[in-house]
Amino acid sequence: MLEKKPDNLRKNLAVFLVFTGTILASVLMTPSLKWHNIFQKILGEKIIEGEKEKAKVIKEKLATLVSPFSGTYGIYIYNFTTGEELGIRENEVFPAASLIKLPVFAAFYQEAERGGLSLNTKYQILNTDKVAGAGSMYYAKPGTVYTYKEMLELMGKQSDNTAFNVFVKLLGKEKIQQAIDSLGMRRTSFAKNETTPAEVGLFFRKLYQGNLVNRENREELLSYLTKTAWEERIPAGVPEGVRVSHKVGTEIGVIADGGIVFAPKPYILVIMSKDVIEKEAKELLPRISGLIYTDLGTD
Fold this sequence. Notes:
This protein has 299 residues and is α+β, with helices and mostly antiparallel strands. It has helices spanning 5-28, 35-66, 101-113, 148-157, 161-171, 173-182, 197-208, 215-224, 278-297; strands at residues 72-79, 85-88, 94-95, 122-124, 145-147, 194-195, 244-251, 254-261, 267-274. The protein folds into 2 domains: 2-33; 69-297, 3-Layer(aba) Sandwich (Beta-lactamase), CATH 3.40.710.10. Helix 3 (101-113) crosses helix 5 (161-171), helix 3 (101-113) packs across helix 6 and helix 4 crosses helix 5 (161-171).
């Protein structure tokens, strides 16, 4: 009898393990407990907390970087990888300068998609169309012919003021403001030429996600905003070869840039300013861009 005790113990242990395993398996597989969702929630909360901490650190770095400079800066960032937003004065209204040309692109393409306009329509430039500042169209002889598509490209690549003036007359300020409102840019005024960093970011977010214009026009517009005549701001802060589709804005006391950085982890960066010293701002913007690329854009 004594020799059989180990066998009995092993049998009892085996029965106990099978019974316990069955009970545990049935508990874990019970749908009402939603174990998968519980684990996912726990992990998700850890990820969210990690992203919040990272966003806090980035905001502190930005504040430290900007603080020695004169004027006021607004910064908005949207991380496409995580869906996180962060910023400094991102909802404050700033002079838009040439960033106001962005909704003009939207209004034109949307009207073209409705059949109201054609990209291939030819237009003869008048002396009264010309607006000095940015762009080569100002120097064209009266009567020079451009297609609307060519003028859109110049408005993107060169921030051409004459092309902008033609499109404003063509579309009308009311239709442009309607396009702004339909985008959800509630604090953006075409008449006052003002907007916020977050609302410029919203424009680029909708463009990137295909919610602004159709796919063909989206790719065309992104190409017009890439490798522009104004690459010394956000693009200057990222490594060579990283695509940046963006739009600058410049006025007295105003230096701005906003767009999509197609980094390994893509993101939107918008930097706006007012009452700044131009030389300082042009030094600061690439530094802001470089900081964000290092913290958000790389693997």
